[in-house]
UniProtKB/TrEMBL annotation:
The gene is tsaD. It comes from Mesomycoplasma lagogenitalium. Its EC number is 2.3.1.234. This is tRNA N6-adenosine threonylcarbamoyltransferase. Keywords: Acyltransferase, Cytoplasm, Iron, Metal-binding, Transferase, tRNA processing. One of its GO terms (molecular function) is tRNA N(6)-L-threonylcarbamoyladenine synthase activity. Binds 1 Fe(2+) ion per subunit. The keyword Transferase applies. Fe cation binds at residues 108, 112, 295.
């Protein structure tokens, strides 16, 4: 069975081929350089770039496989930027009509969760920590068909907080990898900056905007006093606090739900400190390969294959 998958929910245009349960090809055209100029993703530009990129990626894909060998076309239905999703849907529909093969609509967040299943076996029941630019959730997966959100952010997503703090520190976009780098540069040194972790009514929910605001106030304070902003030290303290916070909340869920594996997913799962700390939490830990952490079509193909197996 061969699945062609298309992912255009945000600012990465990606097409992948899954053949006999293996990812044969996963091509990603990142738009980061274009959006970096504006300090964040501009939805209208993202849609236009997807239109340009997607046809180019298909040319690359056609070098690997003939379109008539494809059995299903999977695409990201939601959530994401409306215009960007539309490009993927229209493109998937056109291929589906041209080769007369069925379309499969995939939820982007299921894609992130199942990215862990590309190279590993998720043992159920499982708990997932999904951390991306748009979402921060704790998932309880009874089995492949039954995944419940048991906690989520009440305000900013983790990746969003990373990107906003990085912008305020003039580090660039996307902020996650840049703050991660500053963290390791500063690691081991003394710090005088302290951040507090927010409390939420529901134990598995998160609130990230408070940590972000504390950081912004600290930076403003340095600037108002015409002092140099200690960029690395602030980045260090921010990452330390955020990762501790995510790990503390997720540990509470592990204690309550007796699961057979835990899965880390989403763009922020590329974070070196988070991966390191997550690995200590359980005997069966699944962290996706770095190329499957941020948005990619391989995870959409994998989610489609799992859907077909169960339906
Ligand atoms: O999953 P993703 O590619 O897109 C969404 O579905 O949102 O996640 C993108 C997010 C961005 O906010 C980016 O800053 C963050 O993932 N990110 C990281 C790292 N690499 C990417 N955050 C922290 N540490 C990283 N190494
Ligand atoms: Zn994503």
């Amino acid at each position: 069975m061969t699945i062609l998958a298309i992912e255009t929910s945000h600012d990465d245009s990606s097409i992948a081929i899954l053949e006999n349960n293996k990812i044969l090809k996963n091509i990603i055209f990142s738009q980061i350089d274009i959006h970096a100029k504006y300090g964040g993703t501009i939805p209208e530009i993202a849609s236009r770039e997807h239109v340009n990129n997607i046809a180019l990626i298909l040319q690359e894909i056609k070098k690997v496989i003939k379109l008539d060998k494809i059995d299903y076309i999977a695409y990201t239905k939601e959530p994401g930027l409306i215009g960007a999703l539309q490009v993927g849907y229209l493109f998937a529909s056109a291929i589906s009509l041209a080769i007369n093969k069925p379309l499969i609509a995939i939820n982007h967040l299921d894609g992130h969760f199942f990215s862990g299943a590309i190279d590993n076996e998720i043992l159920y029941p499982a708990l997932g920590l999904l951390v991306s630019g748009g979402h921060t959730q704790i998932l309880y997966a009874e089995n492949e068909n039954n995944i419940k959100i048991i906690g989520e952010t009440l305000d900013d997503a983790v990746g969003e907080a990373y990107d906003k703090v990085a912008r305020k520190l003039n580090l660039g976009f996307p902020g996650g990898p840049l703050i991660d780098k500053e963290y390791w540069n500063y690691s081991g040194k003394r710090t005088s900056i302290k951040l507090t972790k927010p409390k939420t009514e529901e134990i598995y929910d998160f609130s990230l905007s408070g940590i972000k605001t504390q950081v912004i106030n600290i930076i403003n304070n340095f600037e108002n006093r015409k002092l140099n902003v200690p960029v690395s030290e602030i980045a260090y303290e921010f990452q330390k606090t955020v990762v501790e916070y995510l790990i503390e909340k997720f540990s509470l869920a592990i204690k309550h739900y007796q699961v057979n594996s835990i899965v880390l997913a989403g763009g922020v799962s590329a974070n070196k400190l988070l991966r390191q700390e997550f690995l200590k939490l359980h005997k069966n830990v699944i962290t996706p390969d770095l190329k499957y952490c941020t948005d990619n079509a391989a995870m959409i193909a994998k989610a489609a294959q799992i859907y077909l197996k169960n339906n």
